[in-house]
Amino acid sequence: MLKGIPAILSPELLKVLCEMGHSDRIVIADGNFPTESNGKDGIVIRLDGHGVPEILEAILQFFPLDTYTDTPATLMEVMDGDNVATPIWDTYTEIITKYDKRGKAAIGTLSRQTFYEEAKKSYAFIATGESALYANIILQKGVV
Question: Where is the signal peptide, in residue numbers (predicted)?
């Protein structure tokens, strides 16, 4: 155990966050995201009993978002025809605003297929038990 480190950040996840370099990406995936198939070239960490907001909050306490890109946090756009509300995105905005002065401006979106293609390039993936739809987020690491 370490002082000041949220318990949700497992030793494996802390190691991965430390290994990541500038511009590396990590996906925090909802429960419906195909983490294992998209993450076959990366590291997959399972945090099935947790939701994305609590993991995002814990990570951003230590993880700088990239200042060399306009949108270091990326969400998957809702597909046309899907009648889905995304109130969880408001939660993400609140959390990101606490840790990045750009706030909502640091968050971008990609179409579903483009999101999957970009996700495949990520260094690591966190599989969660998040039940909200379209709750996936890619974070791009900055410098300390």
Answer: none
CA–chain centroid gap for 49, Å, is 16
Q: Is residue 28 a contact partner of residue 52, using CB atoms and an 8 Å limit? A: yes
Domain boundaries along the sequence of the chain? 23-140
pLDDT tens track for 71-92: 999 999 999 999 999 999 999 9
* Given 24, 68, 70, 116, the catalytic residue: 116
Question: What's residue 106's pLDDT?
Answer: 98
Q: What is the dotted CATH code of the domain comprising 23-140?
A: 3.40.1650.10
Catalytic residue status for 22: yes
- Which of these is catalytic: 66, 92, 100, 123? 66
Q: How far apart are CA 78 and CA 61, in angstroms?
A: 28
Per the annotation, the verdict on 116 as an active-site residue is yes
Q: Which distant-in-sequence residues (6+ apart) come within 8 Å of 71 by Cβ?
A: 105, 106, 107, 108
